[in-house]
Amino acid sequence: MQERFPGLTPEVAAQTILVESLKACQSIMDLTRLPVDPRVLSQLRDGGLIDQAEWERIMAMLDPQSGVPSIDA
Q: Which pLDDT tens digits describe the chain residue by residue (73 residues)?
């Protein structure tokens, strides 16, 4: 894999798989299957792997009282 994708490290590969899994999550029950918390989500956002809208969507599922605007609002 690294020959075909020179910049691909195991960490980047794992983060990419996590991001794609997060995008498929539709409920808190889906999120419970993934190793995520607000710190991990912020790292993914700060690294440019998820955008602000996706970060807000997931944070709203994790903590509906967080004050992050809901996509249903």
A: 667 878 888 888 899 999 999 999 999 999 999 999 889 999 999 999 999 999 999 999 988 887 655 554 4
Q: At what angle do helices 10-24 and 52-62 cross, to 10 degrees?
A: 70
Spatial distance between the Cα atoms of 47 and 69, rounded to a whole number of angstroms: 22
* Contacts of the segment 32-40: beta carbons below 8 A, 24+ positions apart: 36/62, 37/62, 38/62, 38/63
Q: What is the DSSP string of 13-72?
A: HHHHHHHHHHHH--SHHHHTTS---HHHHHHHHHTTSS-HHHHHHHHHHH-TTS-PPPTT
